[in-house]
User: Which sequence fits this backbone?
């Protein structure tokens, strides 16, 4: 396929001018030998020798091509995005991708791609990073920090989230954080502000004070999966502190 590492069944049919059954049979033989893998039905990747034990290309080398094939917007998100920004302490064993609607996770050899749905993700600021197979879209540091507190169950819960935020902090631009916070759910802003204050990232926390000053704010639980009955209140962030957060030393 002219040096391409990702291709579709239709691409091969067109390139070889063979029937679909003949192409599928040929692809099955290549897959059995470990030369290719199928992350998605009808979508294939070449598996170079150095990745044969993995049984697939690394996710960052095929996800952009897969999402183009599916004609769906995406960006690398949550702990996977944090790792791109230098917060590798909590690097996940799976690859987290934000999409606009729910999509089934996929496995390819030892690679697992997890899709997370956010309906307004098209407005999220992203940056582009180079990979050996091209360019990949990654949520900005500010957007990543807010999404980490928005989806804590997807990120190993709040101790992991706080550790990642601590590592992300030096990459977050205060003005960008304030701009992104103004479109994020208010509860995310409250939780992130609480964590930033806990981590003594005071300049960034003050940016979120400014956002909440012009928002309608209600008391929100720090851990949304736990009851907040009887939990102490943090008056600055209007947070019901219903769990203790203990980030790792970074």
Assistant:
């Amino acid at each position: 396929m002219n040096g391409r590492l990702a291709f579709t069944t239709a691409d091969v049919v067109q390139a070889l001018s063979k029937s679909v059954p003949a192409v599928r049979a040929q692809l099955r033989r290549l897959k059995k030998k470990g030369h290719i893998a199928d992350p998605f039905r009808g979508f294939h990747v070449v598996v170079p020798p150095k990745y044969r034990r993995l049984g697939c290309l690394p996710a960052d080398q095929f996800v952009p091509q897969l999402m183009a094939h599916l004609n769906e917007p995406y960006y690398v998100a949550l702990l996977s995005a944090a790792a791109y920004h230098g917060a590798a302490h909590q690097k996940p064993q799976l690859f987290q991708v934000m999409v606009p609607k729910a999509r089934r996770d996929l496995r390819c050899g030892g690679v697992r791609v997890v899709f997370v749905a956010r309906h307004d993700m098209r407005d999220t600021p992203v940056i582009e990073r180079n990979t050996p197979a091209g360019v990949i879209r990654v949520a900005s540091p500010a957007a990543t920090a807010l999404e980490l507190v928005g989806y804590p169950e997807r990120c190993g819960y709040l101790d992991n989230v706080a550790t990642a935020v601590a590592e992300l902090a030096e990459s977050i631009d205060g003005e960008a954080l304030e701009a992104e916070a103004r479109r994020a759910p208010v509860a995310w802003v409250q939780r992130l502000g609480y964590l930033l204050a806990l981590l003594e990232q005071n300049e960034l926390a003050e940016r979120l004070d400014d956002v909440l000053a012009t928002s309608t704010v209600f008391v929100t639980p720090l851990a949304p999966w736990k009851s907040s009955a009887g939990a102490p209140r943090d008056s600055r962030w209007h947070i019901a502190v219903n769990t203790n957060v203990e980030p790792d030393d970074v």
The first strand starts at residue 6 and ends at 8. The mean pLDDT is 95.
